[in-house]
Design goal:
Elements: E1 3-12, H1 20-28, E2 35-44, E3 48-57, E4 82-85, H2 103-110, E5 115-118, E6 135-137, H3 140-147, E7 151-154, E8 161-165, H4 171-188, E9 192-197, E10 204-208, E11 214-218, H5 221-232, E12 238-244, H6 249-256, H7 266-279, E13 283-289, H8 307-310, H9 317-324, E14 328-331, E15 348-354, H10 361-369, E16 373-376, H11 387-390, E17 399-402, H12 405-416
Helix pairs in contact: 2-12
Amino acid sequence: MSQIYTKDFEIECPPQERTWYKISQRISELPLPGVPIRLILTAAQENTLTFECSFIDTDKPPVWSSLLDINIRDRNSTKPFVAVSIIPTGVRAEIGGFAGDATPSTNLLASACDYLVTNPNAVTASDIYFAKDNVLYLEGNLICQLLLGNIGVIPEKRKNIAAIIEKPKDERFLNNVLNALNGLRAVGGINVDPVIVTGGAVETKCTYSQYGNASGELSGIDELMKALDVVENSSARAVALMTTLEVEDKVRQAYYRGESIPNPWGGAEAIMTHMTTNFYPFTAAHAPLLLEWEHTGFGKLVDPRDGAELISSAYVCSPLNGLMNSPRPVKFDTPLATGETRISVENISAVVMPETTVGNIPFFASLDQGVPVILVKDNTTRYDITPEKLQIETQGRKIYRVNSYMEASGLLLALRNGIMPESTTRPMPQIEPIFL
């Protein structure tokens, strides 16, 4: 029986050793209850780091290297020009913490790149999807593996996408989702195959950790893995997961009223998709499955950033459109077929993220790999982990601060065109010659 655990733990790690290479070594020395599938730094003290981590205990072997493994790669390629934009889910980002409301900012960044890799919650908006064609839709675990140097990704349009639907108690909910899938087939010409209904419940309770970020408690994970096994034996290499997410009604209503709480669904969805992409060789995204008709919220006027959620009752059209543009993950050294382009950490030119969300694997891995990090000040979150809170030395590191995504896109253009960013600001730093 497979089981997912989420627990906190501490490691001793002084500021001068705060690299992913060192941090992952400390974590691997702990008695871990399974394979780590999602790690979040929740607190940084003088010599101690506290993490919230989700683990899975299962007999199925992972398809990729551990998140605790990092392979430092030689970054010597600038073509194609690729950037990564990460807006962590479940931390109430002002931009991207709602229903795909980071799509305009993401498209702006993408206009400065050949390809922009981003995580689903930034551009997924229930039934609405407007990300540009050069936006590569990739969930968080695979972004981590990409920046750790463990995998590459090959941009391609998906020929078919699998769908897994949790068996609902009310057949009308199933019919509602099937109508949405049929609409995508009839109007968009999208091949959705296979479509699998689980034999039992995949129960997920949405929670908040003591640190305020969204999390989740999952049971019935074996039911989901049985369905994923069927997908693995099909031709599909992308899957949309549609399962129930239990949220207290008072929390749901507070979120829709615009109160300052993170998206309650985001953490549980991330744990589920991270599990999927750790153990199956395809990309994934999640869409909530309704529990009650009242949960649609029809007729309510809500925060504009949540408008897309309130006009849908299936929530799956946007994730499926995104999955059509999800790149194919491959092992780092997989030979390329004629005409294929493989993106790896070797040709990632920058990683963009909110300034207060640096306590994650992509941030540490980027610094270890020598990838410039662009921190956006205006995209505030409830997370509040900055380089200063980490007490890491920023001098000499490629960490840039910008006020907005508009500034971030200009910085990407500078990097793409070989313009030294420091030459556009004042005062301009002096040359420091090396005297022999």
